[in-house]
Amino acid sequence: MVVSRRIGAPAGDIFRILADPGRHPDLDGSGMLRGGVSGAVVSGVGDVFVMRMHYERYGDYEMNNHVVEYEPDRRIGWEPRPGRGHPDATAPGTVWGHQWIFDLLPAGTGATVVTEIFDGSRMPEDKRAEVDSGRAWWQTQMASTLERLAEPCAAR
């Protein structure tokens, strides 16, 4: 799934917000993020940041987000894996294979087209079918995330 939005801010400003997991709950269009476990800002591929989450079906849990793409001011992406409290965390090596990616493309002076990508192409068939059945919901939440991302950029 892919959703894009033009935001009136330079790519570097937007990237700094996306690289700071502490800012993610403010941006989250799904309402599932509760906060980061550590205050560390993402600095490259291989970093892992842990987010506290809540989903009605699972309750409170954590996701371990493995950074798989990092190109400053251009692209950042991570692969979430079930963490503490998640029902799939007890299965060793559980990886769903999905990724969240943000692509930033300069669009004139002081503006950027931000594309949020949910890549579920490597997910197990049952998980992919579950996401596909809620495609409209996911896309609405992604559009809301980009709208929320535009807010701190406009306030600068």
Strand content: 35-45%
Would you report the number of β strands? Answer: 7
Main sheet strand line-up = 1-7-6-5-4-3-2
Derived from helix and strand composition plus strand pairing, the structural class reads alpha+beta
The average pLDDT score comes to: 89
Molecular shape: globular
Helical fraction: 25-40%
What gap, in angstroms, lies between the N and C termini?
29 Å
InterPro entries: START-like_dom_sf (IPR023393)
Organism: Streptomyces dysideae
Protein name: Polyketide cyclase
What would you note in describing this structure?
The chain is of the alpha+beta class and 156 residues long. The chain has one domain (2-154): Alpha-D-Glucose-1,6-Bisphosphate, Chain A, domain 4, CATH 3.30.530. It is built from four helices and seven strands, in the order βααββββββαα. It has helices at 11-18, 24-27, 125-133, 135-154, and strands spanning 2-7, 33-36, 48-55, 59-71, 75-82, 99-106, 112-119. The chain has a seven-stranded antiparallel beta sheet with strand order 1-7-6-5-4-3-2, covered by helices on one side. The longest helix has 20 residues, at 135-154. It is globular. It starts with a strand and ends with a helix. The model has no long low-confidence stretch (mean pLDDT 89).
